[in-house]
Amino acid sequence: MIDRSPNRTSLSNVVVIGTGAAGLRAAIAAHQAGCEVTVIGKRARKDAHSVLAAGGINAVLGTRDPEDTWQQHFGDTLREGYWLSDPRVVELMAREAPEAIRELDEWGCEFARTPDGRIDQRFFGAHTYRRTCYAGDFTGRAMIKALGQKVLDLGIEVIEGQYVSSLLVDDGICFGAYAFDINTGDRTVFLADAVVLAAGGHTRNWRRSSSRRDENNGDGMHLALSAGCRLADMELVQFHPTGMVMPEEVAGTLVTEAVRGEGGRLFNADGERYMERYDPKRMELSTRDRVALANYTEIAEGRGGPNGGVFLDISHVGKDTILEKLPRMYRQFIEYQMLDISSSPMEVAPTAHYSMGGVVVDPDTHATGVEGLYAAGEVTAGLHGANRLGGNSLAETIVFGRRAGEAAASLSQSRDVQLRSRATIAAAGDELDSFIKPGEEFARPLQRAVRNALWEHCGVVRSADGLTEGVTKLDDIASSIGDVDVRPSSEGYADLAHVLDLRAALVSGRA
């Protein structure tokens, strides 16, 4: 008999769920406001999904284009999101991103510099001016390094390898989270006055995705919905135009927009630079949705390459420039394909990349509809509308991570006592227990079935009939979840994490 009772209780003022950029920035803000903070996440803080963000982070610094303004950044974001963004959220991001960048710089983020020492900026698709700050093509990693070091310097507790199965909510008030250790199965009740949810999106639920297998499965959105939050715009998923197409085990891995920002050109199998037909003015630096649709169309109409992609060529800029500006991409193609991108084109195709919908939040505080629960980053809706501008997501993490952390701290400091409910905690444990049992099905094949269904019926191009068929397939998969085999093994409690990821994928995919 396995003892499944909680063996640890953690007490703090604010709990942050997620070790990416939004989560770490929220933790720093809450700590600096005087709160005791605990950060929990599935991955190590140095390896959260934010490290995969390659190309850059937007802020109006005017390094290359002094005429740029926050109002122009605001306008570009609204226009390219097809006017579906929340204007207040966009305004806050555009206004506050410059100070957030300067703060990161002070904390040691290794941004690229101009010869006179200023933070350099480059073009990203559909931006009027050069406002994308960058650190080679590993900007997210540089940010996480700086944020992680700041968290360490402040002495903020970070607990890794934790899978949050439930948010603890009683009478409409969130008072913590229930989690288990993915390796040992040990359970912890994280009690707090306020919780910041920064657990990412749901694009791993598509067969071709820029996310790794154990992240962005929609678990943050499922947690929020189960707690009583509203979700919005879940159908708005960004497909990045350029993902790797081979080998199969890495298909979908991001080929950063920085390649096109540095002059990369797209060609079909006929050698035609086809963006002239889709957006002759902006060409490869058109919006991501337009470039993704162009790539999809070229492939679907038979003008793709031998591996089902189109060709992205950066060789004309020279090897020295590639090694300076795109070192990660150079290594990535050498490692996976033995391809030298300084002399040969890359074959690429659209890949599920970013969730633009998510939890509905207050623009200023990022409070959800559940008292005590805040959210920041990709798990939220509001900023991007129907199409995200490259570089805005990292700006979102640090601007609204700070705001959510400060708001959570303010709520904590206003409370005289910390709410607890033994019944709610017991129910969270019972729910987790219900998944641990022998069964005839296995979570991973069912996860693959979800990914195939969403890729086939909810991809770059959709139809009413296709969506209906996709929902039917998800319902069929959902009927098997009660018979999934879950028990501890040499891999720890990975089976339990997989079945919870499957549960989240079915909910977020159907939404």
Give the key terms.
Methane Monooxygenase Hydroxylase, Chain G, domain 1, Flavocytochrome C3, Chain A, domain 1, five-stranded parallel sheet, single chain, 15 helices, FAD/NAD(P)-binding domain, alpha/beta, 511 residues, 16% strand, four-stranded mixed sheet
Estimate what percentage of residues fall within beta strands: 15-25%
Helix fraction, binned, reads 25-40%
Sheet with the most strands, sense and barrel status:
5 strands, parallel
Distance between the termini: 38 Å
In CATH, the architecture of the largest domain is 3-Layer(bba) Sandwich
Describe the structure.
Helix content is 37%, strand content 16%. It is built from 15 helices and 18 strands. The protein is globular and about 65 Å long. By secondary structure, it is of the alpha/beta class. It has helices at 21-32, 70-80, 87-106, 139-154, 219-227, 258-261, 275-278, 288-300, 319-325, 327-337, 392-414, 422-433, 443-457, 464-478, 494-510; strands at 8-11, 14-17, 37-41, 57-58, 121-122, 132-133, 157-160, 162-170, 173-181, 187-191, 194-197, 231-232, 237-244, 265-267, 310-313, 346-355, 358-359, 373-375. It has three domains: 8-236 and 356-414, FAD/NAD(P)-binding domain; 240-350, Flavocytochrome C3, Chain A, domain 1, CATH 3.90.700.10; 424-510, Methane Monooxygenase Hydroxylase, Chain G, domain 1, CATH 1.20.58.
